[in-house]
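User: Fold this one for me? It's Tetratricopeptide repeat protein.
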Amino acid sequence: MNRHTVSGSRLLLVLFLFFVILAPSAASGVSGYTKKKMTREIESARSLLGQGEIDRARAALQRVLRMDPNHVGAHHLLAQMAFDRDQWAIADHHINWLLRRNPRDETALFLSALLNNRTGERLKAHTQLRILVKIGARNPAVYRELAGYLMEDGHPEEAALVLVLGTEQSASGGVLIQECGEVWKKLRHPEVALSLWQCTRAESAPNIPSLFQQAYLYHRLMDYPEARALYESVLLLSPEHDQALYNLSLIHRSEGDQEAAARTLERLIEVSPGFELAYAELARVYLTLDRPQEALDLLKRYLNIGNDPDLQVLAKEAIARLSGEDQDGDGGPAESSNDGQNKESDGSR
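Assistant: Here's what I get for Tetratricopeptide repeat protein.
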């Protein structure tokens, strides 16, 4: 074998080693060792974020980008971090990089929609959310955001449909079913809302928001035994739940149990003295029970702590009547035109 043949064989061997061993790393631009190092940095960044160590997490992600400027995970995290801290320009930089790479990147497209909404580009945000819904996004927040837009624009029926679609596509269908129930509640269809809330009952452990909303909807449908049982379940889990106490007192009144209504309202004022409607309601109950002095004392007490100007006026008028200062009065408290009085609370206070 001559010298040229040997040299040629060595060249072929070198080329073989390059393509078999080095070419994969050259194609990706990153060696196997570097990939492991980047994985550790990403894990470290996530851990640091969980601990609130924002600067250290950012530094770890920037080290990743120095090793591989095209690392998608690092760009995602940096975009989210910047967005969460109102650093719009930085967030936009990473989002645009991600969308140039993949226009259907769900995470980047959703962040872009949120960013556009924050910066006044509402129509663009709306369009991006519709694109995400069209491609079947798995993030339930996509459907929640679009439904929110539609509610604001006066399209509650379409909002409900978007949420139903989200229950089929996203990973958290139960949450969206409940939100769909909220939409139907606002549309004044408590029976539909209740059916939707009940769909999630078997899927999740009893929780206060779910129990309260179902109680409220039964209350609206005037099914007092079911409503009372559910309000009591709420109070077993949270004895100081002011809205459950208030609504339970209304059920007691509707069922003619004024003593139970009084006890419930007294408990409510004890645990939540700032729940102003309770004073007006309890004064009415005291008068029904022929306990005018207690009603008078309660209203005077309310004047010292109340902030609602309408209720303050009504309390003063009632005090005047009960004190005999208003000769034309009928001896009872003034009737309120306030929508919250004698009306169950829906939990949105």
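One thing worth pointing out: The two ends are 93 Å apart (CA to CA).
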